[in-house]
Amino acid sequence: MIEVIVTGRRDEADGICSFELAAADGVALPPFEPGAHIDVHLDGGLVRQYSLCPGPGQAGRYLLGVLREPVSRGGSAAMHALKTGQRLHISAPRNHFPLARDAQRHVLFAGGIGITPLLAMAEHLAASGCDFALHYCARAASRMAFAERIRAGIVGERATFHADDGGPQQKLDLDAALGEPREGVHVYVCGPGGFMDWVLSGARARGWPEDRLHKEYFAAPSQPAGARDQPFEVQIGRGGAIHTVPAGLSVLEVLARNGIDIPVSCEQGVCGTCLTRVLEGTPEHRDVFLTDQERAANDSFTPCCSRARSARLVLDL
């Protein structure tokens, strides 16, 4: 846990604010790689993850871009209530969305607030002299955070802007932007779930291999309409107590009600903080943290959102 002070706040676009954070003790904050995020601890016990986006002259400080969600679970509303001078606690940086070190070219797709990790990537790539292209999409030009910084900075002409309310000539041609899959070229996407699924589906349709598609979700995808949760049991270790998980409650909630606390952060299957080992049974994975290979192994799951396909899961707790 690192205590920080909000040293700056700025309206970046419609509904989006940036927050500059500095260590309360004046020491430089830990360095991080592009794509990294931090946990922000807010009032009421809320913990939310936000991508880090450095700015010029901000060595040792962090910059976050936060969208005020219309239907907030509390995190974005609490962030937008912050004022300059307030203190709060954050985690050290973690990175589940790194740049591929062996890539020869990087193609970045940002949707809305998904620009935050991709801007950090783009500026790093530009400063390193790497080959890349950034495509920034939003519903309207007025909702594009950091747009002037991108245009005037080192990313410059390697960024292309695509607004839904703009003319047809500037709309994103996904096939053209992706091109044919080539060795050494990697694709990165971050933004709303629907946008990400569209980009990833388009890439897969063109034959892009999964190991060259990199993604970071802000939330796990919603379950299909009409899908119904089925009750199941969780057992604490082999021979331990058995608890029923009814429809409408998560494993995490059931365990907490029975005095079993598991570290948790996002509560949406994004961060992996609550990842728990499965000794027996088959999970129904609903997270976006585990890879396809890790899911297929069925030896761990995220109890904050995932459930069970089998009648019982035996957990290593």
Explain this structure.
The protein is an alpha/beta fold and 317 residues long. The protein folds into three domains: 2-90, Beta Barrel (Elongation Factor Tu (Ef-tu), domain 3); 105-216, Rossmann fold, CATH 3.40.50.80; 232-315, Ubiquitin-like (UB roll), CATH 3.10.20. It has seven helices and 18 strands. The strands form four sheets. Strands 4-3-6-1-2-5 form a six-stranded antiparallel beta sheet.
- How many domains, in number, for the residues? 3
Largest β-sheet summary: 6 strands, antiparallel
**CATH architecture assignment of the largest domain:** 3-Layer(aba) Sandwich
Strand content: 25-35%
Give the helix/strand class: alpha/beta
Shape annotation: globular
What is the residue-averaged pLDDT?
92
CATH class of the largest domain: Alpha Beta
The CATH superfamily of the largest domain appears as Nucleotide-binding domain of ferredoxin-NADP reductase (FNR) module
For this structure, the CATH topology of the largest domain is Rossmann fold
Strand tally is 18
Low-pLDDT residue intervals, each spanning 5 or more residues: none
Order of strands, main sheet, comes to 4-3-6-1-2-5
Sequence of secondary-structure elements: EEEEEHEEHEHEHEHEEEHEEHEEE
Give helix % range: 10-25%
List keywords for this structure.
single chain, alpha/beta, Rossmann fold, Ubiquitin-like (UB roll), 3 domains, six-stranded antiparallel β-sheet, five-stranded parallel β-sheet, 18% helix, MRET, iron-sulfur, methyltransferase
